[in-house]
Amino acid sequence: MSRAEFLVNVLDSTFDKESWYAPLKASMEGLTAKQASWKPPGEATKSIWENVNHLIYYKERLVATLENREWKRIDGNDTFFITKVTEDDDDWNLTIERADNVHNKLKDLLIKMSSEDFKENGLESDLIDIFLHDAYHTGQIMLLRKMQGSWPSHR
Fold first, then answer.
1. Rounded CA separation 101/73 (Å)
2. How far apart are CA 146 and CA 152, in angstroms?
3. From CA 51, how far away is CA 37, in angstroms rounded?
4. How many CB atoms lie within 10 A of CB 2?
5. Alpha-carbon dihedral of residues 81, 86, 92, 96, nearest 10 degrees?
6. Which of 41, 42, 134, 140 could serve as 14's disulfide partner, Cβ 3.0–4.6 Å?
7. What angle do CA 11, 12, 18 make, to 5 degrees?
């Protein structure tokens, strides 16, 4: 397996290909908008939806960089609010779709790259940061689901 194939494989394992831990897509499955927007007491806690927004932002920013497009950088805390959190299931489903779309776009771009492309401009390092960041916040999402009783017991 080439370095490029390895990195694409890790990208998938953090999003939709379960390895020895649940990926982001599994952590969002079966949630209603009300569950996704729920927060336990405490100001510092973000909702599942807000965490998903945050992850979407950083992948969209990386995609824009890879496509040489301008991207409006925003404050890290503002990334949790890139879509409005409501109790409307259609809004939540659009957010899930946006997460799917940006993952697939990033994957498509990476598949077309050579191993040398990954070494240029710190891309490999940026990808590893994305992988770790996704895994970290996916863990938070699963903890929130367990706290609210919405994490399937079969996992």
1. 20
2. 8
3. 10
4. 10
5. 10
6. 134
7. 125
How far CA 14 is from CA of 66, 72, 78, in Å, comes to 20, 25, 23
User: 0.90 exceeded by the pTM?
Assistant: yes
Chain centroid to CA 36: 14
User: What residue type is 20 in one-letter code?
Assistant: W
Question: Tokens at residue 100, please?
Answer: 């799917």
Structure-block tokens of residue 108: 């498509």
67, 109 contact by CB (below 8 A): yes
CA-based max dimension of the chain: 47
CA pair distance 73, 12, nearest whole angstrom: 25
Q: Kindly give the residue spans of alpha helices, DSSP state H, lying in 18-88.
A: 24-28, 33-37, 48-66
Task: Give mean pLDDT in consecutive 10-residue pieces for the chain, a chain of 155 residues.
Answer: 85 90 92 96 89 97 93 92 96 97 95 81 88 95 94 69
- Tell me the two tokens of residue 102: 């940006």
